[in-house]
Design a protein that fits this description.
The complex is a heterodimer of chains A (about 240) and B (about 725).
Chain A: E1 6-17, E2 20-31, E3 35-39, H1 46-54, E4 61-66, E5 69-70, H2 76-86, E6 87-90, H3 102-112, H4 117-131, H5 145-157, E7 163-167, H6 175-192, E8 195-199, H7 203-206, E9 211-216, E10 219-222
Parallel strand pairs in A: 3-8, 3-9, 6-7, 7-8
Antiparallel strand pairs in A: 1-2, 1-4, 4-5, 9-10
Helix pairs in contact in A: 3-4, 3-5, 4-5, 5-6
Chain B: H1 2-20, H2 24-61, E1 64-66, E2 77-86, E3 89-98, E4 117-121, H3 122-130, E5 139-144, E6 156-160, E7 172-177, H4 194-218, H5 221-233, H6 238-266, E8 273-274, E9 279-280, H7 283-288, H8 290-310, H9 326-329, H10 332-351, H11 356-396, H12 399-410, H13 412-436, H14 441-453, E10 457-461, H15 466-475, E11 480-488, E12 494-499, H16 501-506, E13 514-515, H17 521-530, E14 537-541, H18 544-550, E15 554-559, H19 567-577, E16 582-585, H20 588-596, H21 598-641, H22 645-679, H23 686-716
Parallel strand pairs in B: 3-6, 4-5, 12-14
Antiparallel strand pairs in B: 1-7, 2-3, 2-7, 4-6, 8-9, 10-15, 10-16, 11-12, 11-15, 13-14
Helix pairs in contact in B: 1-6, 2-4, 2-6, 2-8, 2-21, 4-8, 4-21, 5-6, 6-8, 10-11, 10-22, 11-12, 11-13, 12-13, 12-22, 13-21, 13-22, 14-20, 15-18, 15-19, 21-22, 21-23, 22-23
Classes of the chains: A alpha/beta (about 240), B alpha+beta (about 725).
Magnesium ion (MG) binds near residues 46 and 47 of chain A.
């Protein structure tokens, strides 16, 4: 897939917490329509990286440019607006409201972003249909795990984000459902023209991405050549 | 030593667990408030015992030691207890006559008043000043100090009659003051027994406080449960878990108990006045009972951590979001029977002719049934309104309405419990208040009489002789006329009035013998109260004192041309000229009976409002805990879209509206249920209902703000967690 437009560009990000240097001059670039999977040992800082990308955590150094804007320099209000307009996120446990229907869960994200009601519901309906979520009045709590994660993806996409982040999106699923959700998830960038960054510890899932990176010692390396010391990052972290 | 160190550490873990858990603010505040409420309720109960104990002490110290003496003139002391209406209620006037110097004055009185002087308690003096009749019983000298009063606010007078007004034949001989039995005079006659007070405090303070303790103990338990589960997994025993639990509750409990202790301490140095009921707390009694008071506070402070430990849900399987307790709160049959019961309560009694116990039985069945089935109806209503909210939210794109509606549909029990407890509490308290104020038929009739003729007619009875009566009639204020009232109480009752021409003219009668004009409202009331309703009143021209000396029972005072008499002046004349006179309006004894219900009713009202407030607080705290869990689910989305307003909007529908509506529905239902009682003369105090309503609205706004703020703050601090 062509990466015609860069939606995420991370350069030289440093993040230190509790005396540990979690991100150490980290670089990453994701184009529109491209999917990137990040794996790494537990505690290596994958979730922390996603939080930096979301702007929920401010790195001590470096630049994070999302859709052309360096979010490390944005004030709270502007950052909130930028996150709302350009980023979507899929969580491990979905984090949907269990009492609401999938349609309402999806439309709610649009409504809260100030999208007019009619558009919000129409978009939500279209997205859910495309993603194969039944549109009945069933509360989200009573859906299957796979349907729930599809709804979560729909919610992440409803505001037409440039960048979609996912933290262990299949972590709570089993076997076949996991594959099915992964397939759907990795089809998102092509279909909606956004960038996708997925954090996972499952190599099988990571294998479906356009690029598979490995986080270790605070840097991202191409998973194929993820050996410390080797500078070769063929198609890896581009700057 | 090692053991101790372990426990200290566990205690610290508990404290940290409390601080770290979600809904921590709510739990902290609820525990603090619950401890404060429970400690204060317990202290109020003990204070009640202290005051009644003090009444007993001082009441028996001033009780006359009655002794049988053959010749009353040789008794050391003569005592006579009389009553007078001051400030709309009956007050004790104790006539005393010490013979010789051997008898000490009653407690609280420094020296014996001279003949024609009176010693008044402060409260009675204030009442008399208000009626502009301070020297009604004689020249006031000094006042009865607190040592001589059962409670500081008691109305009491010791009066030493002028020598001419002594009536030894009607006085009791005594050796002095101080007996085993409490004195019969003072305000004790209108005082409900200690058991009634205990019942009131237990029902309206202790019970709601206990409910609040339970809610507080169970609120925000999620984070705590995790740590305790971890402790158990690490092999910690029950005792260790108890220490953790106690450590977690220690700070809020200590703060709540300290606050209660401060309030108790404030009442010790000097007499405080309880607002609303206007009762002056005797600090002496509270000081005497201080150890028990603080023990009550301490007991409450211990009971709360005990409740936290006992109510700690261990081993409960997961907290699913699936609706629970459905059957109990959505039973259709229960919901439908509620209006039927309401109909039974409000219309049922009408179908029965007359009143009596069957009337009451039907009414009580209706009320109990209504209040018992109301929660089901409310739950059904909550579900229905929830669905409506969902539709509205979807149709107009209102996130707050949508999510609150879905919550109500999925878990109507949470909101229904909130509304139902407030509504039922208001209903119950109103019923209790109605019952306290319920007058008997005679009281209602007496009130009606007083409304019709006011103070236009007074009766005066005493053991006066002709000379004294004559002096009294001469001493009457301008425009007041006296007649002798004679009631023939044979089979054929008849009433006769004897007066001079002026007095007969005041009743629009000719100067001679005649049958009274039955249209005169005053004479109608006289017939009703003294003649069994059927008697004729005959009027005669005669000298009243002469008739009285023979067989008449009392004097009737009326005013020229009708209108209210100057009651204070008539009374002053009576006490100046007659021995131990009783001056009152027709059927006055029933009016006193009605007035005696006022104080207990005020207490019911006061404690009732507090009790409803506590229950509403508990219900709202419970609801708030649930809303916080709900807000936690909404946090990720709110962070992603950078939107906090949704918590405020959601809380409007989840907290503000239900609580405010609960107050309104409670008052409405109470009004409805009260109708048959008010028709029978019970008084539904508007200020009472208004305070309940206002209280609910204040709590609604308070909890709305609290819920919105804490869920918004919770969301602000939210970070995605995944491994
Ligand atoms: N706020 C924080 N305070 C202290 N340590 C933190 C904080 N946030 C993250 N860490 C630490 O940083 C490390 C990386 O965490 P995380 O990004 O969640 O790793 P991963 O998702 O790769 O498993 C962990 O060891 C964690 O303990
Ligand atoms: Mg992680």
């Amino acid at each position: 897939m062509e990466t015609d437009r860069i939606v995420l560009s991370v350069s030289d990000v440093r993040y230190e917490i509790a005396g540990r240097l979690l991100l150490d001059g980290l670089d990453l670039s994701v184009g529109a329509g491209e999917s990137v999977a990040i794996t790494g040992p537990s505690g290596s800082g994958k979730s922390t990286l996603l939080m930096c990308l979301l702007g929920l955590v401010r790195p001590q150094g470096g630049r994070i440019v999302v859709a052309g804007v360096d979010i490390t320099r944005l004030r709270e209000r502007a950052l909130n607006r930028h996150r709302r307009d350009h980023m979507g996120m899929v969580f491990q446990f979905g984090e949907l409201l269990p009492e609401l229907t999938p349609l309402e869960n999806t439309a709610l994200a649009a409504l809260l972003s100030g999208v007019p009601r009619r558009t919000a519901y129409a978009d939500a309906e279209e997205l859910l249909t495309t993603l194969g979520v039944p549109l009945g009045g069933t509360p989200t709590a009573e859906l299957s795990g796979g349907e729930r994660q599809r709804t979560a993806v729909a919610r992440a996409l409803i505001n037409r984000p440039s960048l979609v982040l996912a933290d262990e999106p299949t972590g709570a699923l089993d076997g076949s459902t996991r594959d099915e959700v992964a397939r759907m998830l990795f089809s998102v960038p092509r279909q909606w023209g956004c960038g996708l960054v997925v954090v996972t510890h499952d190599p099988a899932i990571a294998g479906r991405s356009d690029r598979h990176l490995h986080l270790s010692r605070g840097r991202l390396n191409d998973a194929g050549t993820a050996l410390p010391g080797t500078g070769s990052t063929a198609g890896g972290a581009i700057r | 030593m090692n053991m101790l160190a372990t426990y200290v550490r566990l205690f610290a873990i508990g404290r940290a667990a409390g601080r770290g858990s979600e809904g921590h603010g709510l739990r902290f505040t609820s525990l603090l408030c619950a401890t404060f409420a429970l400690a204060l309720a317990a202290a109020v109960l003990v204070a009640g015992f202290a005051v009644y104990d003090g009444r007993e002490l001082r009441g028996s110290a001033r009780a006359p030691q009655y002794v049988g003496v053959a010749d009353p003139d040789r008794a050391p002391l003569l005592v006579q207890v009389a009553y007078d209406d001051v400030g709309g209620a009956q007050r004790s006037i104790v006539f005393v006559d010490p013979r010789g110097g051997g008898v000490a004055p009653p407690p609280g009185v420094e020296r014996w008043p001279a003949p024609g002087e009176a010693v008044l308690s402060k409260a009675l003096r204030a009442d008399l000043v208000r009626e502009d009749s301070l020297d009604r019983y004689g020249k006031p000298v000094g006042s009865i100090s607190e040592a001589g009063l059962e409670v500081p606010g008691e109305r009491l007078a010791y009066v030493r009659p002028a020598s001419g007004l002594l009536d030894p034949g009607n006085m009791t001989t005594a050796a002095g003051f101080g007996a085993d039995e409490r004195s019969v005079f003072g305000d004790r006659e209108s005082l409900p027994p200690l058991s009634a007070f205990t019942f009131l405090v237990v029902g309206m303070l202790l019970f709601p406080a206990a409910v609040l303790v339970v809610v507080a103990a169970r609120s925000g338990a999620a984070g705590r449960d995790r740590r305790v589960a971890l402790l158990r997994a690490l092999g910690a025993g029950t005792r260790a878990r108890v220490v953790v639990n106690v450590g977690e509750a220690a700070l809020p409990v200590a703060l709540g108990a300290s606050a209660a202790a401060v309030v108790v301490s404030l009442a010790l140095p000097s007499n405080l006045t309880v607002p609303v009921v206007d009762f002056v707390l005797p600090a002496t009694d509270l000081r005497r009972w201080a150890p028990a008071l603080f023990a009550a506070v301490l007991a409450a402070a211990l009971a709360v951590p005990a409740a936290v430990t006992l109510l700690h849900r261990t081993g409960r399987a997961g907290h699913g979001t699936r609706p629970r307790a459905r059957n109990r709160f959505t039973s259709r049959r229960m919901a439908w029977s509620c209006p039927v019961f309401l109909l039974v309560a409000t219309r049922g009694p009408d179908l029965l002719t007359g009143g009596g116990s069957l009337w009451f039985l039907v009414y009580v069945c209706g009320v109990v049934g209504t209040l018992a089935t109301l929660p089901a109806l409310i739950a059904a209503g909550v579900s229905a309104l929830g669905r409506l909210l969902v539709r509205l939210g979807n149709r107009h794109g209102r996130p707050g309405a949508l999510i609150a509606g879905r919550r109500a549909v999925a878990q109507p029990g949470v909101t229904a419990r909130l509304v139902a407890s407030v509504v039922v509490a208001i209903g119950l308290v109103t019923q209790i208040q109605l019952n306290t104020s319920l007058l008997n038929d005679a009281m209602i009739a007496a009130k009606a009489t007083h409304e019709r003729i006011g103070d236009s007619m007074l009766t005066v009875s005493s053991a006066a002789d002709q000379r004294q009566n004559r002096a009294f009639l001469r001493d009457l204020p301008e425009g007041a006329q006296g007649l002798a009232l004679e009631v023939e109480s044979s089979d054929n009752r008849s009433i006769a009035l004897y007066g001079d021409c002026a007095a007969l003219r005041a009743l629009n009668a000719p100067c001679g013998t005649s049958t009274a004009d039955p249209a005169d409202p005053r004479l109608q009331e006289l017939t009703a109260w003294f003649g069994g309703g059927a008697a004729d009143v005959t009027l005669h021209r005669a000298d009243p004192p002469e008739r009285l000396a023979r067989e008449a029972e009392r004097l009737l005072i009326v005013r020229d041309g009708g209108g209210d008499l100057p009651v204070g002046e008539v009374k002053e004349a009576a006490f100046r000229n007659l021995p131990a006179p009783q001056v009152m309006v027709v059927a006055g004894e029933w009016l006193f009976g009605a007035a005696e219900l006022r104080d207990p009713a005020a207490w019911t009202l006061f404690l009732g409002v507090i009790g409803v407030g506590l229950l509403a607080f508990a219900a709202a705290a419970n609801n708030l805990g649930d809303f916080l869990r709900f807000g936690r689910a909404l946090a990720p989305l709110s962070v992603l879209v950078g939107h906090r307003g949704v918590f405020y909007a959601g809380a409007v529908w989840a907290i503000l509206v239900p609580l405010a509506a609960a107050g309104a529905v409670g008052v409405l239902v109470s009004l409805w249920l009260a109708a048959p009682m008010t028709a029978k003369g019970a008084v539904l105090t508007w200020s009472f209902l208004a305070s309940l309503l206002v209280l609910a609205q204040i709590l609604a706004v308070l909890f709305w703000w609290w819920g919105s703020r804490s869920t918004a703050a919770q969301a602000a601090g939210w970070r995605p967690t995944a491994d």
